[in-house]
Structure formats: structure tokens, C-alpha cells
Amino acid sequence: MADVGAGGVSLDGVGEAARTRSHPSVAARFGSGLVNWLPALPLIAVAFALLLAPTTLLVIQSFRGDSDHWTVEFWKETFERRGDRHAIGTSLRLGAVCASLSFLVGAPMAWLLSQMVTGRRAIWLALLNVAANFGGIGLAFGYTAALGTYGMITLAMRGLGFGFSPPVSASFAGLVIAYVYTNVPLFVLLTLPVMSILRRDWMEAAEVSAATRLQFWRYVGLPILSPFLAAGWLLIFTWSIGIYGLAYALAGTAANGRLRLMTLQIGLALNSSPTGQNRAAVMAVLLLLFATGSLLAYRLMLRRALRWFA
């Protein structure tokens, strides 16, 4: 028999209604979740069409032959080819050199900019933004116009009596110069916000405690900034090994064997043999693996850096 409370209302009915409100049905929860995710569906669709689907197809193509059977022959062929191994090693070396030079030049520059007054800093930030976004074919033309055989700097140095011989554009040194032109400003822009973490009162406290500037940077400044700077190094490294337009404009297809990069090797593989598409897919997957590893290490670096502020 149902309990009846004041006013003749069934207590069992009230309890059932309360339980229904506190435990909504599966359909209600699904509808609420769908409504919450609805604004993000276009972005998810674009990410699937332009990122997830092509990545999946590349991985499948690197392991699947023309007869629709799974094989690692293309991976084996890629690592057995001397040109492909050389391209992998050169790309990693180029990325490490460019990232290291960007770190050595960009870190002190970012610190100096952080100490400037607002007006002067704004001028430098505008110049750095222009340099960081100037790349590809335009930068290759600028390199040729400045450091080519008849470039402006080359002719000026020779006119002054110096036996100046600039690096060949298709050489390792030529690519490093061109890459660093955009990588250093990019590194500065990435690490400049981090410099505000170091408070001026920390430096004043170190001076009051009779600590030298070198001691402050050794025991306070660098331990705090090093994870952020290492994260910036990883981003520049990942960016450098994936550049194609600038490398193609300066080094061509590298068919002469002078310089081989992973990005250039992808284009060369597509036009060289019947299995070129599969070997190009292998190179592309390797680039994805290197980028994924760098980004995971980047996340770990940032997590370690944020411990100072937990």
C-alpha cells in the first residue's frame, strides 16, 4: 500500500520523480552531450578529413603492397637504400643544428627584449614577426639575391677586396643560413613570454645576499627557464625537419646526390620507381613519428617546468 503524505500526495510517487530527476536516462545524457559538442563538430570533421584520415592512409600505404597484402618490404627497402639513410641522417642533423643555433642566438635576444620598454619592444616584435613569417620561395630568392654568385653581399665584399665565397645554396651550410633566418625570430617569439617568469625582486634578493649575476643565472634563472627553452628547441627542431618549400627552392630535387633531405626524398621517390609511392609513405610516416616524439617530449618539458608554479 502506497504511503500518503500531507495533502494526499503519494510519497512513493514523489520518491520516484526525485530518482528520475537525479538519474536521467541514457538518451537524455546522450542528447545533452551531443548539444554540448555540436559547436565543435565542424572542427572535428575538418581534423578528421585533413589530419586523421591522411595519416591513417599513409600508415596503411607504407605496409601494404600492390597485391593488397601486408608487408614490411617497403620499410626494409627504405632503410637499405643509401640515399634514404643519408636523407634521414641529414634531416636530423640539420634540425639539430638549426635548433641549437636558434637557441644560442634567440635565448639571449628574448631576454634582452623582455627588459626593454614597451615602445621599443613593440618595434622589435614587429620586425621579428615579419622575419618569422618570411619563408619558402620568397626566402630562397632573398638568399640568392644576397648570397648568390652575383648577390648583393657577395659583390659588396668582393668590391672591398675580400675573397668572399658564400656557401652554395644547395649545401648544408646554405640551408642552415636560410633556415636560421626564420628560426631565430620564431624561437624568440616562442620564448619571449617565458622571460617574464623571472621576477626582478628575485634578482634583487640575490644581490642583497651578495650573490653575483653568474650565480643567480646558475642557481635560479637557468633552472627555471631551461625546460621552457628546451621545449622551444624541440619545436624548432620539429619545424626544421619538416620544411619542404624552402629546401626545394634552394636544393632542388637533390638528384645529383649533393644534398638529400627526407622532405625532398619524398618527392624524389614519387617519380623514381613503381614502389615510389610506398617508399614516400614510409618517409612521411617517419616524419610523423619524429614529430610525435618531439611533441611528446615537449609536453613533458612543459609539465616539468610548471612544477615551479604548482
Task: Give the topology, please.
Layout: H1 11-22, H2 26-37, H3 41-63, H4 73-80, H5 82-114, H6 118-132, H7 136-147, H8 152-159, H9 172-195, H10 200-208, H11 213-241, H12 245-251, H13 262-270, H14 276-305
Helix pairs in contact: 3-14, 4-14, 5-9, 5-11, 5-13, 6-9, 7-12, 9-11, 9-12, 11-14, 13-14
Provide structural commentary.
It is built from 14 helices and no strands. The termini are far apart. Helix content is 75%, strand content 0%. The protein folds into two domains: 6-52, no CATH class; 72-309, MetI-like fold (Orthogonal Bundle), CATH 1.10.3720.10. The chain has 310 residues and is an all-alpha fold. The protein has helices at residues 11-22, 26-37, 41-63, 73-80, 82-114, 118-132, 136-147, 152-159, 172-195, 200-208, 213-241, 245-251, 262-270, 276-305. The protein is globular, with a radius of gyration of 29 Å.
